[in-house]
Design goal:
By secondary structure, the chain is mostly beta strands. It is 4% helix and 45% strand. The chain has five domains: 158 residues, no CATH class; 101 residues, Immunoglobulin-like (Sandwich); 101 residues, Immunoglobulins (Immunoglobulin-like, Sandwich); 101 residues, Immunoglobulin-like (Sandwich); 113 residues, Sandwich (Immunoglobulin-like). The protein is built from three helices and 41 strands. The strands form ten sheets. Strands 3-2-1-6-5-4 form a six-stranded antiparallel sheet. Strands 11-17-16-13-14 form a five-stranded mixed sheet, with no helix packed on it. A five-stranded mixed sheet has the order 19-25-24-21-22, with no helix packed on it.
Length: 638
Amino acid sequence: MRYNCALLLCLILLLCSNCTSAQLFKIKFLGEVADITPDKSEWTIRLTTPIDVVGAEFKSKQSGSGKNIFIVSSGINTINIATDDTCKVLYSLSKAPEDINVGDIAEVFGYYMGNNKNKSNLMHYISINNYNNYIKNNNLVLSDFGLSKWGIDNKGNFGMEADLKGMNTPNDQPPRIIDITPDQQSPQGIDSAVTWFAKAFDPDNDPIYYQFWLRGPRTGEEWQIVQDWGTSNTWTWNAGKMDEGSSSIRVWIADGNNADYNNRDDSKEYKGYQIRSETIPSSKTEAVKGPTSSSSTNSNLPPSLVDLASDVFSPQSTGTTINWRATATDPENDPIYYKFWLRGSGTGGYWQAVQDWSTNSAWPWKTDEKDIGSSDVRVGTRDGNHADLENMDDFKESYDYEIIEGSNQPPSIVSLTPNLQGPQAVGSVVNWITAATDPENDPLYYKFWLNGPRTSGNWQMVQDWSTSSTWSWKIQDSDMGSSSVRVWVRDGKHAGTLDTDSFKEYNDYQIKSKELAQLNVQVTNDVYSENDRHLYYCQEGKYISFKNRIYLIGPDLGKVKSVKYVLHESFQENPAPDSEERANNFEMWIMTWGRFPIKALITTTNGQKFEKDYEFSFKSKVEEAQRRGIPMVRSCEG
């Protein structure tokens, strides 16, 4: 069967008549081979039917017009450039010219480049004179000339595509990338060779082209192509001293039927690959011979970073304070020092130190308009036994934190009030109620704090962030005294979880002990104690006096603070002192005879006052002591 090329082009246009957006695609020309003329290193192939595409006039390498004449180089299946002052045309055959016979249907891919006055746009402009050298460069180069794209792959083969007046390739789907992975895990030392693998698929099984990029210390933190478009899905990074630090690797993919040369159908990045100056054992899956750890004689081990996290998720609006916190460990529990960096629009795209070495593992990022966009955060650690101030023992990075323009206003607190006015007693429940407003009626989050006897005079969080604007304070014995209550509020669009948009305090709220309805203690007496088992007496004339112990007993003894005993009026010249010795049952000793009433004035630990009456006598106590054989000792002193 013979194919008329003009008819084929009409068919392509017809298939694309319902397409809505311009896409580039390859055009295949089919034609019957009329004759083949090999001449030294060139082959002339003439098709029966002339080829005509977008009005381009094809010319042979020598001279003259011949729309159905192609001159190809021997040994390769690419057709030489035919040129004049107005256009360039590239061709590619489906098979080598020596394999084509008269009568075959030749598959020829043609491409019209446009006016060469635009040659300044060429990434690599090729003239006839350096054409052969260009092939040897093994580069894939696509350049845009008006309606057309052309290129050479890394095997020296031409690739042609064209935009036929804004028509689409029917039903062609772009490729998609699945992953990009290194053959050795980060970190690696300088002089390492790290091979990167890109995994992708194309729904139409089109050939996939790959382009690899690098951004890091070597490239001045700018994205730079390190392997241009080609069919290889791998790139080997021979890391050197210039790569020391953190780098990112990107791969672009395209199938040639969708995105143009300067764009991609899909892409993926691997961020934060570390290259370090020290020797690091290989992490390849194959067995590694030799030592598996550093040969350093320093037995002290460096710290390692576990985590770097922010207290609020991305994105956040300008004006928000974002608290970054690092978590690190040190095998010897050495003090750990931290340093924070920021890279983003606010730093011109370069890493910039924002908090110098200190033992503070947190950094508050107070964002503003210059931070709008995507930023990365890095933290470094050292323990002072390994890296110096210009280096670090370990580091971790967090990427792509978005800051957006913020017109949102923060909330403010109107009041903080208790439902019960102070003072209150132990056992009470006091509800603290917050009233706050937000200009945009955003959901509000509240956090409550207490400062008082229970917290040893320090602010202590008693209810973490929640949407509840109240806190119930269940008062305990440890709260007795004066306390202050504080509330924080935030709407999640400004301050982070370690800070607040607004706060309010209520000071000097008084707590007293719970009132006792009764005090279960009694006054009693005895003529000796277990600490001194003697019966002291003094006889003067017909009167005999005995030394008596007056004290308290009962289950509420622990609630007593002090006791004052009011004795008979005969003791007024020598009144009894207050007793505060709970360990001795608030005892008092007197030398006396006879019987009389005693009143005990008791003060409790919560300040309450109680009176206890007691009818004092000791005759039965003396008789009981004598029956028990308690020895009597005469003592008339004092």
